[in-house]
């Protein structure tokens, strides 16, 4: 969705491959919160990371319970979603990932109720993609193909040696110090099955996303998938 929005605004980017080819975003609340379905969120506070499209997606999700954005309080908390939910500052979180925030909550024994966005009226899309400037790709296609090949090998290595993958995560410098090794291990186990082995992006699925975003009023024109993605640089199967 971010690539589509950026391209409509004229950003010179193209998606070159998918790292995770399905949505991981979810609506999450705790089972002991008194919320049992979407309709119960009326008057409640929902925390979101604050990406541009997330309020629109949340509006679609709320409609599954007969609600609108006016029926809830939406709070942008960046990626402090878990602290917001655990502390009670939010009754639910939306836009976090079931394999990340959801996994942490499960590890902490907080019994989260996790509903995938694709079960809330939102179409399938590639959650995580590699993007680049088209002019840079044209200048050095060999480098791009080499990078995509290395990415594919790295994915296979992570799947084949999970302990080393976990060590790499802990040593990356981007790890959340509040999340212990056991929680990271659970996150890893939840993420590995989601990784795209081929990095292939489905143009039909992307076109359906564009059509849906246009219907929702999120974009003003329907760009063809070829305007913002290419599978031309993927490694040979």
Radius of gyration: 19 Å
* Helical residue percent band: 25-40%
Rounded to the nearest angstrom, the distance between the terminal CA atoms is 27 Å
Order of helices and strands: HEEEHEHEHEEHHHHH
Number of strands: 7
* Largest beta sheet: strand ordering: 4-3-5-2-6
- The coarse overall form would be globular
- Strand-residue fraction? 15-25%
- Overall mean pLDDT stands at 94
Largest sheet: 5 strands, mixed
| Poorly predicted residue ranges | none
Strand pairing plus helix content: what structural class? alpha/beta
How large is the count of helical segments?
A: 9
Descriptive report:
With 237 residues, this protein is of the alpha/beta class. It is 38% helix and 16% strand. The strands form two sheets. Strands 4-3-5-2-6 form a five-stranded mixed beta sheet, with helices on both faces. The chain has a two-stranded antiparallel sheet with strand order 1-7. The chain is globular. 30% of the residues are buried.
């Amino acid at each position: 969705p971010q690539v589509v929005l950026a391209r409509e605004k004229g950003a010179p980017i193209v998606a070159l491959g998918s790292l995770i080819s399905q949505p991981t975003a979810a609506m999450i609340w705790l089972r002991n919160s008194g919320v049992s379905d979407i309709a119960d969120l009326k008057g409640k506070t929902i925390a979101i990371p604050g990406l541009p499209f997330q309020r629109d997606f949340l509006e679609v999700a709320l409609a599954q319970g007969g609600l609108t954005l006016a029926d809830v309080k939406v709070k942008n908390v960046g990626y402090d979603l878990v602290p917001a939910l655990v502390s009670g500052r939010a009754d639910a979180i939306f836009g976090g990932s079931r394999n990340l925030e959801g996994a942490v909550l499960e590890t902490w024994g907080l019994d989260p109720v996790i509903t995938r966005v694709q079960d809330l009226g939102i179409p399938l899309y590639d959650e995580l993609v590699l993007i680049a400037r088209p002019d840079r790709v044209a200048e050095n296609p060999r480098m791009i193909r080499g990078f995509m090949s290395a990415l594919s090998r790295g994915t296979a290595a992570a799947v084949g040696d999970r302990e080393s993958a976990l060590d790499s995560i802990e040593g990356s410098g981007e790890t959340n110090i509040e999340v212990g090794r056991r929680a990271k291990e659970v996150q890893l186990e939840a993420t590995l099955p989601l990784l795209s082995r081929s990095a292939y992006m489905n143009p039909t699925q992307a076109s359906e996303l564009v059509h849906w975003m246009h219907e929702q009023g999120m974009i003003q024109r329907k760009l063809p998938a070829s305007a913002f993605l290419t599978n031309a640089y993927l490694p040979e199967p």
